[in-house]
Amino acid sequence: MRRYLPAVLALLCIGGIAVASNLAPKKTVKEVMKAGFAGNSSLCKKVTSGEASDEEKKQFLDLLIDLVENNAPKGDETEWKMQSGTALVAAAKVVTGREGALEELGAAVNCKACHDKFKGK
What we know:
By secondary structure, the protein is an all-alpha fold. The chain has one domain (about 25-120). Helices cover about 70% and strands about 0% of the residues. It has helices spanning about 5-20, 30-35, 45-50, 55-70, 75-95, 100-110, 110-120. α2 (about 30-35) runs antiparallel to α4. The longest helix is centred in the C-terminal third of the chain and has 20 residues, at about 75-95. The chain starts with a helix and ends with a helix. The mean pLDDT is about 85.
């Protein structure tokens, strides 16, 4: 029995990863917008201005993960994944402290460009 334990544990881990990857996002698009983008003192503005704490940067990154995991409210799904994915990658660069990441994130979170293509009713 001991001989099979590593194989059984590996299968359980693989199964757990497969199940976790199929879970729904924690927040809807509307919830992400409210939590991260709404208002003049939004988390997005705080992060892109360089005033956010490390915890706030991670919180914003987590919101963008939820955004990418959602389907487009309207418009092309592939374009939605590309545009939201670009913002996600830029936010990850901010969290890791990459040079030029704040500017990249600022360009990636262009509200009007996204709303024109994807905002539902």
